[in-house]
Design a protein that fits this description.
It contains 4 helices and 33 strands. The chain is mostly beta strands. The protein is globular, with a radius of gyration of 22 Å.
């Protein structure tokens, strides 16, 4: 497959207001009305955009949310229905899903779990699911349970009641904390947090038959498998670690100076994906993850320290004094929750957060079939957009994922939050994806969608990105070479 089998043309940008007082966190598209719906979390509203002519997208109206409903986290649209995930003004209390029509008129609302962070419709449009992150408060005195809420909308939105909402919880795993930790799932909250309190669902994808959801639990470095008909979590899958001593897993670890030095280090990277998306190839379901990484940072508990600030085991790290200097490994941030395997107060292994990559996983077995290794970093460096100031944390920070099909090829678009770009890969062969190109976006792309030609207002497939920091929505037209 040629590495330039698909090309993109930037055809327009849309701004939803002044940067700093507005944001474009998540964008959704309705092909019926040809409108975009933007979760403007900073301004606390939904912006509705006329998308009939993508080259001249314009604001139609905005729906204010905060005073009436709460704080918006995410948005989704299907079959002319707009669904917004709304966090409670007191975030640790139950959130809401609020439904509107595509003109912005309120239809109905129901309660869901604490901190609904992502919302999506099943492929057949009969259900709406939210990933309820359930983060603790900053003092870590209130720690709600993470969960996945399932709203059955097959009877229509107007007639919805709370009886149409079921919630898949992790409570049945509370007695398995020790075995889950031993398997590689991170359970480490303060105050003896239960498994249910500690699991933090982040993002959702589906099987082709809409009966199974695959949910990233980012802080836990795990995937939860949910049986949708019974609202039951049937499996928790640890994602393991990435060995940065392998040649293609080399990375730059220091934010000091201006040089970008890709090298191997005795560090294990936790995948900790944010976004996830599913597709079928040769009859097998796969899910694709953006391996961002995320740390717990609260007033009562911060898990990260620089290597220079921790004690290293003399046997495992015989050159510890050298490694801990800023010019070597000292600047890298690592978690303090892992690595002291013999509980003697020093670190026998080092774990960084995020794998600086995207991965493809077999949905049946949960095994990884591909990882992009350090290619996202390398391509960003080649384009002179790599941000060396992020090397000590999570580098390019792959965050968002969407899938599409162009010219018969399955593609994945990976949003890279810290270099303000996205990368496109051909994933027609799940075990050997091929890099196509990397493109610049607005400041901190948070959301990204693919609009197929059949649903596009111009009958050509489009990629639309939304940027959290500058409120910029960028629109690209795809072309097969």
């Amino acid at each position: 497959i040629a590495s330039q089998s698909i090309t993109l043309n930037h055809i327009a940008s849309f701004s939803n207001g002044t940067s700093g007082t507005n944001s474009a966190e998540i964008v959704a598209h309705d092909p019926i009305s040809q409108r975009l719906f933007i979760a403007n979390s900073i301004a606390g509203k939904i912006d509705i955009v006329n998308f009939k002519n993508p080259a001249a997208a314009s604001l139609i109206t905005s729906i204010p949310l905060t005073a009436t409903y709460g704080n918006i986290n995410s948005i989704a649209v299907k079959n002319g229905i707009v669904a917004a995930a709304i966090e409670n003004i007191i975030p640790e209390q139950p959130g809401k899903v609020v439904f509107f029509d595509t003109t912005g008129v309120f239809i109905n609302q129901v309660n869901v779990g604490a901190m609904p962070d992502m919302i999506t419709f099943t492929n057949d449009g009969t259900k709406v699911l939210t990933a309820n992150e359930g983060q603790p408060n900053t003092a870590y005195t209130v720690d709600p349970e993470g969960s996945i809420s399932i709203i059955n909308i097959s009877g229509g939105i107007a007639s919805l009641t709370q009886t149409n909402v079921t919630t898949a919880t992790f409570t049945s795993y509370n007695s398995q904390a020790s075995s889950l930790k031993a398997s590689g799932i991170r359970i480490y909250g303060l105050n003896n947090a239960t498994v249910a309190q500690d699991m933090e669902p982040e993002y959702i994808s589906f099987s082709a038959d809409n009966n199974t959801a695959y949910v990233t639990c980012q802080e836990n470095n795990a995937i939860a498998v949910v049986d949708i008909p019974t609202s039951t979590i049937t499996a928790l899958r640890p994602l393991g670690t990435k060995n940065h001593l392998l040649s293609n897993n080399s990375f730059d670890i220091s934010d000091v100076g201006t040089s970008i030095e890709m090298a191997n280090w005795p560090v294990k990277g936790l995948y900790m994906p944010d976004a996830i998306a599913s597709y079928t190839a040769n009859g097998q379901l796969y899910y694709v993850t953006a391996n961002e990484g995320d740390s717990r940072e609260y007033k009562a508990f911060t898990e990260m320290k620089r290597v220079s600030a921790v004690s290293l085991d003399a046997t495992n790290f015989p050159t510890a004094t050298t490694l801990k200097t800023d010019a070597i490994l000292g600047r890298l941030n690592v978690t303090t929750t892992l690595g002291d395997t013999d509980n003697d107060g020093d670190f026998d292994a080092l774990y960084s957060l995020g794998a600086r990559s995207f991965s493809v996983w077999n949905a049946t077995s949960g095994s990884q079939v591909f990882d992009s290794k350090n290619e996202l970093d390398v391509k960003a460096k080649d384009l002179a957009i790599y941000d060396d100031a992020r090397s000590d944390d999570k580098s390019v920070e792959p965050e968002s994922i969407c899938l599409g099909k162009v010219g018969g090829k399955n593609i994945v678009i990976v949003g890279l939050e810290r270099v303000d770009a996205f990368a496109i890969y051909d994933i027609t062969n799940p075990t050997s994806p091929v890099f196509i190109k990397m493109y610049k976006t607005g400041d901190a792309p948070e959301g990204i969608i693919f609009i197929p030609a059949s649903k596009s207002p111009i009958k050509q497939s489009l990629i639309v990105t939304s940027s959290e920091n500058d409120g910029l929505v960028k629109i690209y037209k795809t072309t097969k070479l």
